[in-house]
Amino acid sequence: MSGHSKWSTIKHKKAMMDSRRGQLFTKLGRAITIAAREGGGDETSNFKLRLAVTKARQFNMPRKNIDRAIDRGAGQGGGEGLVEGVYEGYGSGKIAVMVEVVTDNKNRTAAEIKKFFEKGGGSLGQPGSVGYLFTQKGRIVVEKTAEVETEMLQLIDLGAEDVEEMDEGIEILIEAGQLGAMRDKVTAAGLKVKQAELVFDPNNLLKLDEKSKAKAVNFLENLDDLDDVQNVYTNLDI
């Protein structure tokens, strides 16, 4: 098994229960706009856009919101100033943290994240300072049925390198470059894909005592709530 800390699962459940749907839809819309601007507005040919739209639908984002975000990316108003970025550092309890952002003001976002890390007892590092502790992977969550063991064996036969049953479904991790092909193979095999995304998977996990872990999780949750933050990855053993 990989070093996946299951932070993505906790974050997913938190987002589904988050009352601030407007903030969530804004983040999802920005990701869609960036993807459409980079590769065009056709979900069929633009895999990054397809992933962003799939994630938006997962959180019940209205189709009209999705279409507006695609239009912005296609140059129909408002998406030109958005840029992506990745920040790295050590958070509460010395956990390694990777932060993906989308912002219309890089200086503001950099200052905000730096201040957040310092206030939380951590430190923001330079590019590569913690990146070597992670490997980018493709992550797919497949809907499970009563035949979980059969489905897991089927996924292994399809080429999944890491398969694990979770509450939300069956999670598989594969090489990042295989995400699109594996998603298509899983679908063609008759299995339902619930999520498909690129993630930073920790190579090893850091264990903390319960008090320190609770403080670190609180740090991660508050970091994820920042307006410009899209995704947060950590090596915390949750």
Task: Describe what you observe in this structure.
- With 238 residues, the protein is an alpha+beta fold.
- The protein has three domains: 7-73, Orthogonal Bundle (Arc Repressor Mutant, subunit A); 84-132 and 205-234, 2-Layer Sandwich (Alpha-Beta Plaits), CATH 3.30.70; 133-202, Alpha-Beta Plaits.
- The chain is 43% helix and 23% strand.
- It is built from eight helices and eight strands, in the order ααααββαββαββαβαβ.
- The strands form two sheets. It has a four-stranded antiparallel β-sheet.
- A hairpin with a 5-residue loop joins strand 1 and strand 2 (96-103).
- It is globular, with a radius of gyration of 18 Å.
- The model has no long low-confidence stretch (mean pLDDT 86).
Summarize it.
By secondary structure, the protein is α+β, with helices and mostly antiparallel strands. Helices cover 43% and strands 23% of the residues.
